[in-house]
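Marked as duplicate of an earlier ticket. Keeping the data here for the record.
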Amino acid sequence: MNRLIIALFLLFVSTQVKSQPDTLSALPYLPELQTAEYSFYVYDATTGQVVAQSPQKSLTPASVLKVVTTATAMRLLGPDFRFKTRFGYIGKIDHKTGTLKGDLIIRGGADPAFYSEYFKTHYLGVFEQWAYQLKQLGIKQVDGDVIGDASALDDTAIPGGWIWEDMGNYYGAGIYGLTFADNMYRIHFQSPAEAGEPTRVKYVQPETPGFSLDNRVVSSNKNSDQSYVYGAPYAQHQMITGEIPKGRNDFVVKGAMPNPPLEAADSLRKVVNKLGIEITGQAKAVFTGEDGEFRQMAVEKSPKLKDIIDTTNHESVNLFAEHLLREIGRKVSGKPTLDEGLKDLKSYWQDRGVYLQGFYQTDGSGLSRSNAVCTRTLVEVMLNMYRTPGDDQIFFNSLPLAGKEGTLKYFFQGTPLEGTLRAKTGSMERVRSFAGEFTNRNGHQLFFAVIVNNFSGSSYEMGKQLEPWLLTFY
């Protein structure tokens, strides 16, 4: 029965294409597109021909921009590249008394995955190992502080163009030289049985020294999270407003840590104390490096870059993409800054002849609405990866599989493209995009990108509306 339905569907699609000769230069008529702008580009790598293209418009891409960022990082850094986080101390150890007269240091290496929930087993027990090393040195007391050193990156934690509504929430977390636990914290709420009533914050996890939260969230009849956290980087006071479902005993909302280096230092401090080593000072964060000679005790390497990129594209992790962009700047010019990363990324593809008209990039993740790109650019970047031996399989495997994985899990289910098409998705309010590849019924390898801006309806609904159009190329 399923095969019959699919066959009839494809016959219908084929009939529609024949009756609408402009489908190769325009999307099918949809009421949602009346005031919208869109761009698409479809290329057959088997024949070397453009299958379909609209007039190229530079549009807001959302997260499909990660295709460009991750492809560039894969090329310039290499799939086996690893970030490094170092642990040590500054000062002297008095072996007679077992006292370290100085500070414990976590020296960040701009590792985006350090203690990330996406790599739980990789970092499991790292702080405990570091604390045990102190024990092995005979240290019973630290007469100083625990310092999170974030000087591996500059202190511009938020890219230009990110809006106030985003930057306090987990998907808008800042980028630091010492990133920790996805730079995210959780707010645990209790909501009353009636809608429109004030909610109660039960607790915040993890607890950060000096942090406070102004709760203005009320209960709602809606069964989804409609709350937003407002807070700037380094600011220890944040506000949360909006609505959460009524009648919940433990409803969790995720926010962006205001000071991840401080949180990392405080977490290590707690572990060291638990092992019986007294610390007289407190947790601190520094952003310009620490004074004194650093004595290294341990180095913790990140997962391989190919694994970080896989998570970046499957789960659309903005934080990871932003770190990769800055690491591109470090690799090419020795300057791990946002501006240098943007410049070096563009130069890399320019040197390879990729179409870059209308390419305006302001971050690595696509969260900024200031980003703009043509769909031809996205396709040509993917084609360049496809035509390079070794890069293609690793890179394209990082893109979610239709109907099966990541942000593409609920698209193309029950169609011939389920389990066949791989693509990066992008969505934000009034933005929907896809960029990826698949093999069609004739065995041809097709690469495509489509971006729609300023449509009516939800981003998810627009994505579902694009499914039949993409199926016409199967």
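See parent ticket for discussion. The mean pLDDT is 93.
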